[in-house]
């Protein structure tokens, strides 16, 4: 593939900006190449692919899962995993659309969703960091129970959003850009600053790389870890608000399999599953790759099953490619 | 069948005369009564004598988890129907989407010695054996909607018509498009879960009905019966087809998402037909303000009918409007097309998604 020629060229550059483009950045270049190939395939196979409407549609479709993936990236870089994201999105969407919550208006609905997300994340974080339980188990338990609670709250019904203010979020453009995409961009930008320009971000990398060393270096690893899950939960809350607008409903079936989609995007985005290394940009690119594949398949009227096979192959291919890029640069 | 001969012997010997008189009265009195009754579910009740309190029947009920509107409605309609009868003791077990768990729940009901079982299996094939086990233990089984793989597993089957549902949607759209004089229409289809047999039956009916007018499906996508997936695939479908003439969505539960996507894309150049018959969609059809013009039914009220049948079977009665003394072995409901013209009749049967 054309991608594999890129890393050596980059790695032999003189010191400076390019010299820092090692490891994860190189992987991002690989993903950009994958995305470019997909765009070419899309443009060749369907005349409706390269239209403003469709590209906008791809970005908007990426927005909800994109926000969830940003939170997931933090957790995975910090050496954890969050299996409960989809269930938290469902719970937040249901809680925010109960008649009681809706009576307070759109702002309170949004706040409610975000608080529910943050609260569930806090529960995860406390159990993992201070209860010393394995993240896999804790978030698995949260996944099951949050969805159960969502179903109980909604009484197994789909709850309609009655507030026009929320529904309008999905139809609003700011300077010609859909608000959904702007929300994703803002969350991504804030996330990037938090991860790369603050102590919290550097500590997260340190903890994910080696928790014991981080602890000995004087980092409050437990507080930091707990905050990572709160962050992930908050992202789920924001995603839930976006989903309320997109679907005009709250339901315990919302966010189905988000955990897998988010983890897959993070991994093909070049973040190590064992933690300590990764980028947000890679994760966002990962989301775009998956959403673009779905889009191309639907534009070409192909069945969903083949789409899933293609996604599986891309995950394996991307990881193999990254390993190679990694070897070439180090 | 053993159970049936026993039924008939009892009917003829004991309460037979009374029962027969009741049946006769039903057949005559039903006709003048019919126009007066408004609700479709009430029709069968009028004057048949079958609703007179009789011998007490213990009915066990098992269905999948009520995780979406349609199954939720199945459970509530069954409960409501049972509550109408003093002579019915209704024992429902908690719904489950795990076939293994549903099997053990049915076994529990068998060991409780209920008289009749109403079973909507999560998977018809997987629950067949326990259905046979119940029948062999002398418990009559009413198999609801998802059919067992062996007829030995049930006394009576009652369910919807997936092929007919697709066909009804296809005929309606074919007729509408032909009337408008559309040549070579672009027709979209939003399926539920693609690999389920019921989805394939629906799509087959749809395609074959469209073919009678020389039309075919241009764009087909599959969702997951959930609102979110409906929104997601439809937003892509609308990109794949920049101009549509018609759209059929298999399921009104996911239809909320389908409609959200249509509204967000600002599209209104086509007509849309839904599936199942939810209250939301009926309200939209009645309002006639958007793309939603019709829905083809797959009514959860079948659960209420199943409870009625269970009671009749348990009391060894037949169906008043039929000549035969026993309840039939199989009943398939028709899929009706609800449009603005007839929606008022159906409003009471709509279910909340």
Automatic annotation (TrEMBL), chain A:
It comes from the Bacteria. InterPro entries: ABC_transp_permease. Its main location: membrane. It is a multi-pass membrane protein. One of its GO terms (molecular function) is transmembrane transporter activity. It is found in: Cell membrane. The chain crosses the membrane at residues 29-46, 58-77, 107-130, 136-154, 174-195, 226-245, 280-299. The keyword Lipid metabolism does not apply. One of its GO terms (cellular component) is plasma membrane. Keywords: Cell membrane, Membrane, Transmembrane, Transmembrane helix. PANTHER family: ABC TRANSPORTER PERMEASE PROTEIN YPHD-RELATED-RELATED, RIBOSE IMPORT PERMEASE PROTEIN RBSC. This is ABC transporter permease. It comes from Kineosporia babensis.
Automatic annotation (TrEMBL), chain B:
One of its GO terms (molecular function) is carbohydrate binding. Signal peptide: none annotated. Keywords: Signal. Residues 59-313 form the Periplasmic binding protein domain. It comes from the Bacteria. The keyword Signal applies. Pfam families: Peripla_BP_4. Residues 38-49 have a biased composition (Polar residues). GO terms for cellular component: cell envelope. It is found in: Cell envelope. The keyword Signal applies. Residues 28-55 are annotated as: Disordered. InterPro entries: Peripla_BP_I, SBP_2_dom, TAT_signal. SUPFAM superfamilies: Periplasmic binding protein-like I. Belongs to the bacterial solute-binding protein 2 family. This is Substrate-binding domain-containing protein. It comes from Kineosporia babensis.
């Amino acid at each position: 593939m054309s991608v594999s020629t890129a890393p050596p060229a980059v790695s032999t550059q003189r010191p400076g900006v390019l010299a820092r483009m090692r490891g994860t950045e190189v992987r991002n270049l690989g993903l950009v190449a994958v995305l470019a190939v997909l765009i070419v395939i899309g443009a060749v196979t369907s005349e409706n692919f390269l239209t403003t409407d469709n590209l906008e549609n791809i970005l908007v479709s990426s927005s909800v899962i994109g926000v969830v993936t940003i939170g997931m990236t933090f957790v995975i870089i910090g050496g954890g995993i969050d299996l409960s994201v989809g269930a938290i999105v469902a719970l937040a969407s249901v809680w925010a659309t109960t008649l009681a919550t809706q009576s307070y208006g759109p702002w309170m609905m949004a706040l409610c969703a975000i608080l529910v997300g943050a609260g569930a994340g806090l529960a995860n974080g406390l159990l993992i960091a201070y209860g010393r339980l394995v993240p896999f188990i804790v978030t698995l338990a949260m996944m099951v129970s949050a969805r159960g609670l969502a179903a109980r709250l909604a009484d197994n019904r789909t709850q309609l959003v009655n507030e026009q203010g929320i529904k309008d979020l999905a139809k609003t453009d700011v300077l010609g850009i859909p608000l959904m995409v702007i929300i994703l961009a803002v969350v991504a930008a804030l996330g990037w600053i938090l991860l790369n320009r603050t102590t919290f971000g550097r500590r997260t990398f340190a903890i994910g790389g080696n928790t014991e060393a981080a602890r000995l270096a004087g980092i409050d690893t437990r507080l930091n870890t707990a905050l990572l899950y709160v962050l992930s939960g908050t992202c789920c809350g924001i995603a839930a608000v976006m989903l309320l607008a997109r679907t005009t409903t709250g339901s315990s079936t919302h966010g189905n399999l988000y955990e897998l989609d988010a983890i897959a995007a993070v991994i093909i985005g070049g973040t190590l599953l064992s933690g300590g290394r990764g980028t947000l940009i890679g994760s966002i690119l990962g989301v775009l790759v998956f959403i673009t594949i779905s889009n191309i398949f639907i534009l070409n009227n192909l069945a969903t099953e083949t789409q899933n096979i293609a996604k599986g192959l891309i995950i394996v291919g991307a990881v193999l490619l990254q390993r190679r890029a990694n070897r070439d640069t180090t | 069948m053993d159970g049936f001969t026993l039924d008939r012997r009892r009917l003829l010997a004991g309460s037979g005369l009374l029962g027969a008189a009741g049946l006769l009265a039903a057949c005559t009195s039903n006709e003048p009564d019919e126009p007066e009754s408004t609700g479709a579910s009430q029709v069968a009740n009028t004057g048949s004598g079958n609703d007179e309190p009789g011998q007490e029947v213990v009915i066990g009920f098992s269905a999948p988890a009520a995780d979406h509107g349609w199954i939720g409605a199945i459970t509530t309609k069954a409960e409501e129907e049972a509550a109408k009868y003093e002579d019915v003791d209704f024992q429902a077990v908690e719904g489950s989407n795990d076939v293994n768990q549903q099997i053990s729940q049915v076994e529990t009901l068998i060991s409780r010695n209920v008289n009749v079982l109403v079973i909507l299996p999560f998977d018809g094939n997987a629950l067949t054996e326990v259905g046979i086990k119940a029948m062999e233990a002398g418990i009559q089984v009413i198999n609801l909607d998802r059919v067992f793989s062996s007829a030995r597993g049930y006394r009576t089957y009652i369910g919807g018509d997936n092929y007919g549902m697709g066909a009804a949607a296809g005929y309606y759209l074919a007729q509408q498009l032909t009337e408008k004089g559309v040549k070579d229409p672009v027709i979209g289809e939003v399926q539920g879960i693609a690999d389920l047999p019921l989805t394939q039956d629906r799509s087959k009916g749809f395609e074959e009905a469209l073919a009678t007018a020389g039309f075919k499906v241009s764009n087909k996508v599959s969702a997951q019966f959930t609102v979110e997936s409906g929104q997601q695939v439809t937003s892509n479908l609308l990109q794949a087809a920049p101009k549509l003439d018609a759209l059929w969505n298999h399921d009104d539960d996911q239809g909320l998402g389908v409609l959200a996507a249509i509204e967000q894309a600002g599209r209104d150049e086509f007509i849309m037909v839904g599936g199942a018959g939810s209250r939301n969609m009926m309200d939209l059809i009645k309002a006639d303000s958007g793309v939603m013009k019709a829905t083809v039914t797959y009514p959860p009220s079948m659960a209420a009918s199943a409870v009625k049948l269970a009671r009749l079977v348990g009391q060894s009665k037949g169906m008043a409007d039929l000549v035969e003394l026993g309840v039939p072995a199989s009943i398939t409901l028709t899929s009706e097309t609800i449009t603005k013209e007839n929606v008022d009749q159906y409003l009471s049967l709509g279910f909340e998604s």
